[in-house]
Every structure is written in structure tokens, then in C-alpha cells.
Amino acid sequence: MQKIVVANWKMNPLSVAGAEELFNLIENRIGNLKNTEVVICPPFVYLPAFQGRDSIIKLGAQNCFWEEKGAYTGEISARMIEDMNCRYVILGHSERQKYLGETDEMINRKIKTVLKTNLSPILLIGETRRNSLNSKKEIEVQLESTLMGIEEEHIRELNIVYEPLWAISSQQATIATVEDVIRAKSIIKEALKKLKGEIAKQIRILYGGSVDSENILDFVEKAGMKGVIVGRASLDPEEFVKIVKLLDDVKV
Length: 252
Ligand code: PGA
Known about the structure:
Strand content: 15-25%
Order of helices and strands: EHEHEHEHHEHEHEHEH
Radius of gyration: 17 Å
Structural class: alpha/beta
Shape: globular
Helix content: 25-40%
Bound molecules: 2-phosphoglycolic acid
Number of helices: 9
């Protein structure tokens, strides 16, 4: 299974020129990779700037709508994203739940729509509070409701990111430990097996939440995740490329 690093630029940078500069700086430094996919997810409006490139970097979007087309003002469909040459789409980010009220049911509908295209979903799940007695249940419920009705033939296209809400970049972000991530990974694997059977082993499981070049090996080499999603550190080209190279050198 190939490893993957996903750059989630969120609502940055502020101009297309800035986005092109950042992309170019990353692309020029990356060089050849052994067994790692690199995906950049810029804001929608910058996708046309990268759509025609023949690059080692793949494109992704940060969200999409659950209907294919029609009267949904302000929304972007999976087919439109596919047409922008994207390969991936991030779904279920906690910031969308927090600021826009996105629910597990909406995420489930989005995943189903995405799976009708050639895009692969990158689904984020994670508990709200650290060490809460409820965290196992929270993860299980999220997986059950977001993956409800997903057919066996699509299971291997899924990427699931364990991104605990308490570890996402903020002034108070706490870094997840190797033990936190190993524990969550086994909860996720067990829940997936219960929901989807043996085929669930083919799902790529990643980590997200304040990843940088100092801690990436904890999540990938020590906790055995197949890759990472990177927010804040992906806006610093030198740091991001360092993360990519460290990940590429790990044997998992
Ligand atoms: P962070 O963001 O790396 O800044 O914590 C990750 C994410 O929210 O996807």
C-alpha cells in the first residue's frame, strides 16, 4: 500500500499568485519519491491554476456537495472537482462541522456521491475530547454513520484519517502521543472490520493534527499509520517537503 501525505491548505493563501508560488516551491524541492503520494488540497478557486500541470503532486479538494448538479447556490459538485483534474476530496473536516453544522448524515451522502466519480474520499474522524470515556464510542458512531450503505466494491478507495479535534492546530493544540494514535488505530480497525468485514483491511488509515517534521515519525514509523494530513505545516514549503521526505523514507 502506498503511503500518502495530504496538504490541507484550508483558507490559505490569499491570492492565486501566492498559491502558485507555494505550489512551485514545494514541487521544485520534492524530487523523486520511492513510495509516497503527495496531494495538495488548495481552496477551490485555485484549482484551475494547477489543473493542467503534469506534476508529481496530485490535486485534491477540501469539500464537495452531495448532489451532482442543480439549484444549490454556492456549492461545488464532485463532478466539477473531477473535471479540475483532482484525484481526492477531503470530507468531514471538523472545522466544517464546527462552523457550518455539517453532520454525519451529510458526510455519508457526500461520500456516496464522490464514489460515483473517480475521486477518492479522505474521510476525517476523531473524538472531541482527550481521554474521555466516550471517545471509543464517538469514533465507532462516526464510522458507522458516515460509512452506512457504502458498497464493498468501494471500500478500498477510502482513506480514513484519525484527526482528534483536540490536536488540530490552535494556540492550545496538544500533540497526540504514539500511544494515543496506536489506541485510536486499533479502535478504527476493529470498528471497520465489524462494519465491513475483512475487506476493510484495504482502507488506508492516516493521522492528522499538528503534524510537523519533528513528530511525523511518531505517527508513521512508531504508530504505523500509512500517511498524514498536514494543515499549518503545509504552508511552509521547506517544512512540508521535509515531512514528505521523512515519510517517504519510512518502511510501513
Ligand atoms: P493542522 O491541521 O496540521 O494545522 O493541525 C490539520 C487539519 O486540520 O487537517
